[in-house]
Amino acid sequence: MVLLMGIAMVISVSLSAIVPAGDLHETGLDLEGWGISLSITLTVGTALFIVGYVKGKRSGRSLAMRRREAMALVGAGWFACSCAAALPYFFCEPHVSLDSAFFEGVSGLTTTGSTIFVDLERLPKSILMWRSLTQWVGAMGILAMFVVVLSGMTSSSKTLIGAESSLSNTDLASLRQTMRRIWLLYLGFTIVCGLGLWGMGLTPFQAVNHGLTAVATGGFGTENTSVAGEPFGIASKIWLMLFMILGAISFPFYLTMMKRKWKNLREKFEEVFWFLGIVGIASIVLLGQHFLGGFNGAQPVDIIFNVISIGTSTGYVSSNFDGWSRLAVGILVLLMVVGGCSGSTVGGLKVSRIIMWVRFLKSGLHRTFRPKMVEPIKLNGRKVQDGAFEQLFLVISMFGFFAIMGTFVLQLLEPAQSLKGSLSAVISCLGNMGPALADMGGAEGFAQASATTKVFFATLMILGRLEYVAFVVLFSRQLWKRY
User: Fold this and answer.
1) Which helix (H) or strand (E) holds 134?
2) Which carries the bigger pLDDT value, residue 37 or residue 70?
3) Could you say which DSSP state residue 367 is in?
4) What is the average per-residue pLDDT within 40-55?
């Protein structure tokens, strides 16, 4: 995993040197800083590989990875890769502290999109490209790329992918092939998005960066105003909305469509249609309030853009929504919590969990007056297994716990921050969203935080990206006991 981060560094520097940026972002390349970052990453990655290989040979154990080992690898691996992602910021930017570099690295890999950089337009091209590429790599999962790149771990691949993402329902025999198709589809979306933006007036450098982060639903950009100013017009915003939606939909849905298996498509992927309905209803409600004079200062296209950006956990901003009505802000916060579809690049609790939770509550209500009634709960046309309910309430309970306790801790760390700003920042980090409200919003919202607070925010981002369990178990004594 760490070696793959080194390869990503080489690709980032190469793209920043090749892709022209016009009159913007024409700053130099810090070869010394990138050289140090790459040397550390490759040295550590190679050392880990050799030690693991030698110890594995001596142990004589089977190469099959058990569930416990997979959970440990996912949590520890994402932390190690986040440290590697932080190195270019620390060594290439002299004014970036280690805590700020770690925050930015985690924000990129988890596709959160929060940033400590106030003036993006003064950053070197290589750093801007690295920010975008980390989001593109992290969106589909580092271990997912690991499975695609390396072979010989067929029996362990499903365990790894299941611990990192929600694609574990794929058949074991076709997992590797499925992951390859998903990555090819992901790459195709990115290329088409970038080419379209280039044709709409963006420079090649801007088009590449926004193509990487739009499909990844990450939200890192190259301009201080995100997509609110030039050269983003109505056409480019609509184009970005399309690809944010595409990134937020379950990628197995596209594979099923490509196989022309249209029968019962809506039943098998009902989560997709619920997600589109939620975003559509939220857009209609906010547009209705806008035309009735509920809030001003935004054009209709910007209202829809912000709804889709928040609903897909991308985090692009086309206008300041912090001053919108309470209803509008409340809807946006709910969209932060819900997120998008499982098997996509989006954060949040996922629509499938919300559907399952509502149906479980409905079934429980029915059993209060008909205790002997058997009412199987179905999702995507299949009966939900009992173990899924345990996982559902584990994730929802952890989200609620960390949202409440995180806000409490943040108020202790940053007593000058408002409760609204603290709560929105915690939810934003847990949902891998990016933007926050009140005094935690704006360009300097996260940049002004203390070193301890930045590390705390980074921890919340990793928690949300790994859906809590794979990271929390690292602190369980039972995990580390011998078999």
Assistant:
1) helix 125-140
2) 37
3) H
4) 92
Helices 175-199 and 204-215 pack at an angle, to 10 degrees, of 140
The pLDDT, as a whole number, for residue 396 is 92
Query: Quick one: pLDDT band at residue 172, thresholds 50, 70, 90?
Result: very low
Encode pLDDT of 83-100 as tens digits: 999 999 999 998 899 999
On the CB side of 245, how many CA atoms lie within 13 Å of its CA?
20
Residue 398 makes CB contacts below 8 A (sequence gap 6+) with 463, 468, 469, 472
Confidence of residue 26 (pLDDT cuts 50, 70, 90): low
Dist CA 45 CA 41 (whole Å)? 6
Give the separation between CA 128 and CA 123, rounded to whole angstroms: 7
**Alpha-carbon distance 36 to 3, whole Å?**
15
**pTM of the full structure:** 0.92
Residues 135, 220: Cα–Cα separation, whole Å:
8
CA distance 359 to 354: 9
Q: Name beta bridge partners: 378.
A: 383
Q: Which two tokens stand for residue 337?
A: 């919590």
Q: Which residues pair with 383 in a beta bridge?
A: 378
Radius of gyration for the alpha carbons in the chain, expressed in angstroms and rounded: 22
Token pair belonging to 90: 């620390």
